[in-house]
## 1
Amino acid sequence: MPTGSAWTAQAAALAMTAGYRHFALIGERDRGAERKAELAAVLDRSFRLLVPLRQLRDRRLWQPGWQSLRRAMQVIPAIDLLDGQCVRLHQGDYDQVTRFSSDPVAQALAWQEQGAERLHLVDLDGARSGQPVNDAVVRAIVAALHIPVQLGGGVRSAERAEALLDCGLDRVILGTVALEQPQLVRELASRHPGRIVVGIDARDGLVATRGWLEASTVEAPTLAASFEGSGVAALICTDIATDGTLAGPNLAFLRGMAQASSLPVIASGGIGDLSDLLSLLALAPLGVEGVIVGRALYDGRIDLAEALQAIGPGRLQDPDGLPIA
Ligand code: AMZ
């Protein structure tokens, strides 16, 4: 067990020996430093800590980062719709499409069955054209599920946003409009508190819009900060370079977004395995409350039920129930 300054900062690793998971528990050693600090611990199959926290503290193995043990975040599976099918794009590029299912309703039901507490939908045709394209499928999904569903992509007017909220969607996500008509977002957020989400998609730190085909000169954290106090429910923050790559989230980007605003942040882009999810827990104190997972779920690199156990509300059961200072 590493202690004090002997901590090594390295990518979180997962290993399995003798039926036990050796998990990297994430803490930050240097404030503001962009890295994952690994703190080895042994969890059993159901993510129960084998050495109670009290014992760790008594043995002076306690570190501030261990508070992250108790942090949790929402894991939100994503279904991106193109031409009525479930797809994933690589870095948002409409020419690099992987088709995963031609039955989005069945896919949505499968995520729900595996324990998802919320579903994220993107109408990719809508994001590109500004027109609703996949409404029939969206309605069918909303009708089939009992968990809340959110949708982004092509929502460019108050009428459209409100029609979607009326059809049973829990939240709508506004991306292009958030940059081009921020006042519209504010009006909608005050009329529908808790149901309007701003999607901020960034390429090299600058906001991109219209299916990520248009670049702007606006810094993503500046846009995030501008919705302070607006009643917007959350910011979904995507680093385009990581999206659909499975290469790991851009923690520096996400930290910057979370620090720029007091609104809850939902991380999106790059999640490739369970250790990527664990790495995000270090950002939970800054307000990162959820994470969107797409390709890794389809690929089977992440099992949704396992992910929920690892970072969801029921994560980590401390057999000793030590209160966290
Ligand atoms: O992958 C893409 N090219 C893409 C994508 N996933 N383009 C847009 N979007 C998503 C954004 C956001 O949720 O992440 O569409 C929504 C924004 O759409 P709009 O139409 O409001 O800009």
## 2
Amino acid sequence: MTKLWGGRFTKRPEQWIDEFGASISFDQHLVEEDIEGSLAHVSMLEKCKILSSEEANQIKAGLQTLLQKAKNKELMFSAQYEDIHLNLEKLLIDEIGPVGGKLHTGRSRNDQVATDMHLYLKKHVQQIIQLTKHLQHVLVEKADQHVETIFPGYTHLQRAQPVSFAHHLLAYVSMFKRDTERFEESLKRIDISPLGAGALAGTTFPIDRYYSAELLGFADIYQNSMDAVSDRDFILEFLSNSSILMMHLSRFCEELILWSSQEFQFIEMDDTYATGSSIMPQKKNPDMAELIRGKTGRVYGHLFSLLTVLKGTPLTYNKDLQEDKEGMFDTVTTIEGCLTIFAGMIETMTVKTDVMESSTKKDFSNATELADYLASKGMPFRQAHEVVGKLVLECIQQGMYLMDLPLENYQAASDLFEEDIYHVLDPKTAVNRRNSAGGTGFDQVRQAILKVKEDLKQE
Ligand code: ARG
């Protein structure tokens, strides 16, 4: 079989070399985008009178047939024809005869592949934005049910200060909101057409790049043809945004895994998202959360892989760029899957509010309340810290908590202490009094929930 580019060759490459260079095994994901791009290109050629309407119509009909066959999974591709572009061109010529060879007038695979990638990412980034918004929605609904659920807040994974469980969930909503914004912002740079940049330098044909861009729904065109075919920043940005998103999911998964353990028992995963052990009958493992945490690694890997591929490539197109695809496809599949599973996991988990609340009664996370109490009565905070530190030590030595220490002991430490300290020490009071902006006080949390719901509704 001769190559579509075989004219200047005297020898055909061997089959295994063909296979090594081929990308069809993975770039067939782009089949619909490639046909879509070709349809716009041929319409533009017709409008600019580079092809006659008769030729253009024949080509369009052929492309429509291929599109239908692609949707029905009826197209047969071959490594012989290297990639999705050459495979489709060959199939088109088989379908409609030599006029199919006119499709490639005024374009190159270099602008063609870049166009396909832009179309593909635009579609998927829009889907991912919807999924990140859905996740925020699920979280804020959960938060709404737990404004007054008292939860131990940690620093250094040591009990720090009690918080509202809703406040903890809303912290993640803020992260996912930033992720959503990053994806939205990146669309500006994805929504640009490289089509018509040719191999690197533009073309001698009187094409209209704005027209094909408009047909494809792109907001703008690349201004420099060399940049158009070399640029993979938009993919890097996607991988980078995805890595940050995965990092957030992974941190949350780490917490869910801890909270599901016998040691914490703060939540229980729904059976759908857990698995048993083949040997230990009692086990209920949080597999899905672990898997999402694990998959974070592969997304980071794809980011690093593409950064490394790009660092040494001179302008403009180099075959190295073919390595941009598998990581991008895999990242799309990975994050779409992770976001869907994760939202389901949150929606269905059981929150053990009693365990959370009672755990805050058996720790010293209310110690700051006492120090603040003394400070509000005029004692310098540093001195108050010292006094309360000694009281904590006294409790530890006597095997009790601050709530159990008699008033005499408090008054021996400072005559500023009065009976109302027991109310102040109650974790619920402690949480509710933290009403500074962005704090965990119930009013603040309720306001935050309203704000998130508003924002989600507006978009
Ligand atoms: N399969 C190639 C890729 O993915 C398409 C562009 C090929 N261009 C070329 N001049 N060899 O990068």
